[in-house]
């Protein structure tokens, strides 16, 4: 979508701070207990937990949804820059132009920075669809997008569900190695390390990354749906020929 009508996407400092704090707290707690950072870095445990979790999710998720979920990860730190305030001003501008020059004058707006969703709505207005038809047509788009975004969030929720269990599986594998190498102190230590670190990775990835990401994507999806609901209401009022002052008054409820 064009940058026109949207705020520029800006880095979500709070999300970065939260991730850094959660990971830092784990390492800091380990150091305060006399441990070392290296003790929490176990490649074997990482492979078991991450590989097993991703594999389980791939088994249950269509590839298209998985790919889109990975792409949506960027939204956690660079969320969409939709501005409801800017959208209201844009709708009022279109309303004034339509009342002054007629609905066909909105043709020029289709190529001057309107998003695909806005262009679809304006095209319906220009083509003479009723306000009710415009609402029902655009509502299908809003509901479909929200449903898709919920599926992408569910990918990370599923990861958050599987990771702790895979971590326990890694712990069991580590303990098996311990039992097989009781006479070898070096192998004994490695097995115990894998056992405990795998559990930490499973619980940590689930609660510090996967589940927070899922919840953040849901929040972003609902915010986007509310933004599009505002556009639907405004475009329908343009089709009705409502006064710009009345449009502003009705749309102010979407700004809170």
Description:
The protein has one domain. Helix 3 (63-72) crosses helix 7, helix 5 packs parallel to helix 8 (185-240) and helix 5 runs antiparallel to helix 9 (244-251). It starts with 12 loop residues before the first helix and ends in a 5-residue tail after the last helix. Mean pLDDT is 89; it is low at 1-7. It has nine helices and no strands. Helices cover 76% and strands 0% of the residues. The protein is mainly α and 256 residues long.
Summarize the helices and strands and which ones pair or pack.
Layout lengths: L12 H20 L10 H18 L2 H10 L1 H4 L6 H18 L14 H11 L4 H50 L4 H56 L3 H8 L5
Helix pairs in contact: 2-7, 2-8, 3-7, 5-8, 5-9, 6-7, 6-8, 7-8
Short description:
With 256 residues, the protein is an all-alpha fold. Helices cover 76% and strands 0% of the residues.
* Largest sheet entry: none
Number of strands: 0
State the oligomer.
single chain
Q: Strand pairing plus helix content: what structural class? A: mainly alpha
**How many structurally independent domains?**
1
Give me the number of helical elements: 9
In whole angstroms, how far apart are the ends?
A: 24 Å
Sequence stretches where pLDDT stays below 50 over 5 or more residues = 1-7
- The percent of residues in helical segments reads over 70%
Mean of residue pLDDT values: 89
Fraction of residues in β-strands: under 5%
Order of helices and strands: HHHHHHHHH
Shape: elongated
CA-atom Rg in angstroms: 26 Å
